[in-house]
């Protein structure tokens, strides 16, 4: 996965004192894409975006298609560079600005502090579905058999047929791949979990399983930031909806 963070400079802002329980504070965030194939034209996406995510709550990013929801999620995960603003992520004792984190620091923050369920599974050739799911726990140092036991539990809960567990997910259906992706994102207990349309390809039964998993994470104190196109899922899990179109940049 790409990693685009700005180098730390003297201009890096000082960490704010976040109130207890605040896991993420996005401040005055701005982003425009430079379209190199269009002679370097700039496509502004958001300007002045700001919101917070607290432990034990789920914040949904809302707004029409193209408003910038996925772009904001990718900036929080360090996949997209920011043009301005700060993304304060609470680390062990003090906040770190993801927008100015060095790549190595970002990788460390991902391993310890941020889980991410992307819209599509990034398939790794020859790795079984079970190990794709267990990997984030193993990366935290959990013994492989213990991590696989938890992976089996989650895959069973998400009704992925057992015959698929030992196979690489490359040939799985969209909904099967999404369930592997959800299990991979939910297996560890990182304080902040990002969800990019985690139920888009799921049937009603499995959608409800994801709603239950989100509810359990909230009860355990995880903060969640997600995009949910399905209004029923959003209504069931979101404590707050942040309308991203409010941060739209106006064309000159
Ligand atoms: N890598 C990129 N390069 C150029 N433009 C991009 C890139 N990623 C996103 N965009 C553009 O930025 C705008 C916001 O896209 P984004 O995917 O963040 O919107 P969204 O609100 O998540 O939309 P949707 O609900 O349809 O998924 C769109 O106009 C999109 O074309």
TrEMBL record:
Pfam families: ABC_tran (PF00005). PROSITE patterns: ABC_TRANSPORTER_1, ABC_TRANSPORTER_2. One of its GO terms (molecular function) is ATP binding. Transmembrane segments: none annotated. Keywords: ATP-binding, Nucleotide-binding. It comes from the Bacteria. InterPro entries: AAA+_ATPase, ABC_transporter-like_ATP-bd, ABC_transporter-like_CS, CP_lyase_PhnL, P-loop_NTPase. The keyword Cell membrane does not apply. Residues 24-252 form the ABC transporter domain. Belongs to the ABC transporter superfamily. This is ATP-binding component phosphonate transport. The lineage of its organism: Bacteria, Pseudomonadati, Pseudomonadota, Alphaproteobacteria, Hyphomicrobiales.
